[in-house]
Design goal:
Helix content: 10-25%
Strand content: 35-45%
Number of helices: 9
Oligomer: single chain
Distance between the termini: 88 Å
Pfam families: PNGase_A_C (PF25156), PNGaseA (PF12222)
Number of domains: 2
Keywords: Signal
Shape: globular
Bound molecules: 2-acetamido-2-deoxy-beta-D-glucopyranose
Protein name: Peptide N-acetyl-beta-D-glucosaminyl asparaginase amidase A N-terminal domain-containing protein
Radius of gyration: 27 Å
Largest sheet: 11 strands, antiparallel
Organism: Gossypium anomalum
InterPro entries: PNGase_A, PNGaseA_N
Length: about 700
């Protein structure tokens, strides 16, 4: 027993220096023995609750589906046994027979089961080299588990409906032996939802109007090019970036009539960089002879190059895979984004002018401070001018300063405090002349990063606290009006706490917790189309293990998650908790739309266009939008119609436009919106003949 305590203590120390590896990172087998031992120990310490839920899931909003019957296409069924280092599984893909219809929504459904003992594995799904899904498998139990992922893949519409046979590839590198017995049984299905009958589709190709253009901007790309590895290969189609000096790149060629380009980047980090946010600075590692501990400090960024020049960056969300830190945290509620990893969009339209020469160009990826290994690839989404064989463009302005990373460290032996911070701004402006006219696109990426790392008790105590702010803004305008505005304000928070205390011979207590947060405010506007959303998603997991006199006296773990999404599309709210693998509570709150009743005063009798222009001029004033809009009560249809009449806006647009105005106005700290219910207004009106604004035409005469 003593030796097992020693080994546990040793492993925990190892854990502190080099936090637990999940096997989503298992790529190179050379480290496998260490990690297998490491993990098998951990697996043994987790008892399986015979009544534990077998359905594992990620808490996320549902996809808003049209009220039509989908046409479903079972694309692939495969059992992933010993697939590590083998070629991806491929099948032919042709659009389904129902293809003659128009679809408003296309959903990918990944459904898998597994039974036995197995690590978490990373996997990818590609169609013609374009990545559709990156995910991490759930760790099975001997009794078997099931999980599924629904992903809205409507944005890949042009690829999914291409009338030709394409190759669909899935790589899931699994290893099966006598100990690790779990085979992943996977079904992949695409569901195509036809448009609702009463929805009009404006298919008038000849009508050139601003709204038409704006809607095109708003909708899906006409062509998507893969920036990934070509088959055949014995691995995923992603590129592997193994150190900070490595840039992986791919040649591509675009048609000469492109007017918009967006690069969608997929990223996952493994092995020595799986927990990059907890990596120590190299001087600390050297001073303490921790040569096997991953270093390079806790700052990472993915830099994107076009023909060798920087065009954008990604400061990634800290996804924790299902075996990460403490696998029991993630059963049955998995870590944020672990089943469906986020991809990141970078608007590269300002640089289009350089790519329209009909010649090959190169996109490349590097990772600042990288250790082995990062899996990266991208999809290039392109919008084509159907009326012109050739567009032209030019870069007007580009400003980019490499991220300056500030590091502060103060340590003595293994005890110490480390602060790392950085920020970066990448801003580009370019014009494109197409049949729509000469449009200028301004793209801004703004990043801020803070990380504090504390080690005490000679390594038995460790706290990591990290915050990333990642803002993207894109403004496309004609000389006198905006065509398209898209803004995303993201914050990624991570807090990790671990405390190990020896309480005499054969006794110790180990406490750990993790907080993970993914927040995003999104706002999109083009012509009559408008979209706004707020997401607050926070997970807190904690565990306590107490051992007294060589036997476990306490083993508790639990995960709490609060998910709130308010969007123009749907509203979804969930408050859920698990304790020792069982769901403790799961409450869907009565979700209230953000917009309730509002009264707009004279100051706000401005067009949406004006407000957008003002945000263009002062983008920095809007970077932190308020989250206190729940106070506003539900607008009645009467209010809406009043406002429509009053403002002369299209009724259909009004509700959305109002939402946007509230955001804009509050975001700029102006007091332009007065919250008042109809009831209150009626009372007031009775009392002092007050505001007649919504009640009669006479208001318009003032
Ligand atoms: C499992 O459920 C059964 C019946 O509901 C119950 O008797 C048993 O105590 C439960 N076992 C555990 C470990 O919770
Ligand atoms: C996959 O589909 C097959 C055939 O339809 C079915 O037998 C199997 O149970 C499915 N497996 C999963 C994990 O859904
Ligand atoms: C797809 O292509 C085939 C042959 O090229 C053609 O016969 C068929 O009509 C096309 N289908 C659609 C829906 O366009
Ligand atoms: C990266 O390049 C620098 C300069 O050439 C070199 O000193 C360093 O060892 C390289 N690092 C790796 C990981 O290859
Ligand atoms: C690290 O190793 C060197 C050389 O083996 C030794 O002199 C030094 O004391 C060691 N430092 C620590 C903190 O163990
Ligand atoms: C398009 O507009 C930009 C900026 O206003 C200008 O520099 C460029 O010359 C224009 N291009 C054409 C072809 O008119
Ligand atoms: C980063 O940390 C420093 C020092 O703790 C603090 O002054 C600064 O406001 C933080 N920045 C962000 C973006 O959190
Ligand atoms: C590290 O801190 C602990 C208390 O947290 C103390 O007992 C130990 O002596 C310190 N080690 C060094 C090298 O200062
Ligand atoms: C983690 O646990 C410690 C000790 O109980 C506590 O001080 C800290 O607030 C916890 N952190 C989170 C994010 O729950
Ligand atoms: C620890 O356990 C052993 C064997 O169960 C027992 O003999 C011993 O008295 C215990 N020691 C303490 C301090 O409880
Ligand atoms: C979530 O539910 C728990 C238990 O009902 C409650 O204590 C907690 O306040 C709720 N949290 C939020 C943010 O609603
Ligand atoms: C932000 O708004 C304030 C007050 O409205 C103004 O003084 C300031 O110049 C604005 N900042 C920027 C960067 O436009």
């Amino acid at each position: 027993m003593a030796s097992s305590l020693f080994s546990l203590h040793f492993l925990l120390l190892l854990f502190l220096y080099q936090p637990l590896f999940s096997m989503a990172n298992l790529h190179k087998s050379k480290n496998m023995i260490l990690r297998s031992n490491h993990r098998s120990h951990l697996i043994n310490t987790i008892p399986f609750n015979e009544n534990s839920s077998t359905v594992y899931f990620e808490v996320t909003k549902p996809i808003k589906l049209p009220n039509t019957k989908p046409c479903s296409y079972h694309v692939l069924h495969h059992d992933f046994g010993f697939t590590y280092g083998r070629p991806p599984v491929v099948v032919n893909y042709t659009p389904p027979a129902c293809y003659s219809q128009k679809f408003t929504k296309i959903v990918l459904e990944w459904k898998a089961t597994c039974k036995g003992t197995q690590f978490d594995r990373i996997f990818g799904v590609w169609l013609s080299g374009v990545e559709l899904l990156r995910g991490c498998t759930a760790e099975p139990t001997p009794k078997g588990i099931i999980w599924s992922v629904d992903k809205d893949i409507t944005r890949y519409n042009s690829l999914l409906l291409k009338n030709q046979t394409q190759t669909l590839a899935v790589y899931l590198g699994n290893i099966v032996d006598q100990t690790y017995t779990g085979v992943y049984h996977v079904n992949l299905t695409f569901h195509f939802y036809p448009v609702e009958c009463n929805v009009m589709i404006n298919n008038d190709e000849n009508k050139i109007s601003l709204n038409n253009l704006a809607s095109n901007y708003y909708s899906k790309a006409d062509l998507i090019l893969p920036i990934s590895q070509d088959r055949p290969l014995n691995d995923g189609l992603w590129f592997e970036v193994r150190n900070s000096n490595e840039t992986k790149s791919k040649q591509f060629q675009i048609p000469e009539n492109v007017y918009r380009a967006v690069l969608e980047v997929y990223i996952s980090f493994h092995e020595n960089d799986e927990f990059w946010y907890g990596n120590f600075q190299n001087d600390y590692i050297a001073a303490n002879n921790l040569s096997d501990t991953p270093g390079n400090g806790p700052f990472r960024e993915i830099v994107i190059y076009l023909d060798g020049e920087v065009v954008g960056a990604v400061w990634p969300f800290t996804v924790i895979y299902t075996g990460g830190i403490n696998p029991s945290f993630w059963t049955p509620i998995t870590g944020i984004s672990s089943f469906n990893l986020p991809s990141y969009d970078i608007e590269i339209t300002p640089f289009l002018g350089n790519m329209l020469d009909g010649k090959p160009h190169t996109l490349g990826f590097s990772v600042t401070n990288a250790l082995n290994v990062w899996f990266i690839d991208a999809n290039l989404h392109l919008w084509l001018d159907t009326r012109k064989a050739k567009t032209e463009g030019g870069l007007v302005m580009f400003s980019n300063k490499a991220a300056n990373v500030y590091e502060e460290s103060d340590f003595k032996g293994l005890n110490g405090t480390f602060l790392t911070s950085s920020k970066r701004l990448i801003s580009s402006t370019g014009w494109i002349k197409s049949s729509y006219g000469n449009m200028t696109t301004h793209s801004i990426q703004e990043f801020r990063y803070n990380n504090s790392l504390q080690v005490a008790k000679d390594g038995d105590f460790q706290v990591v606290d990290q915050m990333i702010h990642f803002n993207d803004r894109v403004y496309t305008k004609m000389p006198f009006h905006h065509v398209h505005v898209e803004e995303s304000f993201k914050t990624f928070h991570l807090n990790f706490y671990a405390d190990f205390t020896v309480q005499g011979e054969g006794s110790f207590i180990f406490f750990s917790n993790v907080t993970l947060g993914f927040n995003e405010n999104k706002y999109k506007h083009g012509g009559l189309d408008f979209f706004i959303s707020f997401l607050r998603n926070t997970q807190k997991a904690q565990s306590v293990i107490e051992v007294k006199n060589y036997s476990t006296t306490k083993r508790l773990r639990g995960t709490k998650q609060v998910y709130e999404y308010h969007g123009s599309d749907i509203c979804y709210s969930r408050n859920i908790s698990s304790s020792n693998n069982l769901i403790e509570y799961d409450e869907g709150e009565n979700c209230v739309m953000i917009l309730k009743s509002i009264k707009v005063n004279k100051k706000l009798k401005v067009s949406t266009q004006f407000l957008i222009v003002s945000s263009f001029d002062h983008p920095s004033n809007k970077s932190s939008l308020p989250w206190s809009l729940e106070a506003i009560e539900m607008a009645t249809s009467q209010t809406i119609s009043c406002i429509s009449k009053h403002s002369g806006w299209n009724q259909q647009v009004t509700e959305k436009a109002l939402l946007m105005m509230i955001m804009m106005v509050m975001g700029q700290g102006r007091d332009g919106v007065v919250v008042e219910s109809n009831e209150q207004r009626r009372k007031k009106k009775k009392k002092n003949g007050g505001s007649r604004w919504c009640e009669g035409e006479e208001d318009d005469q003032q």
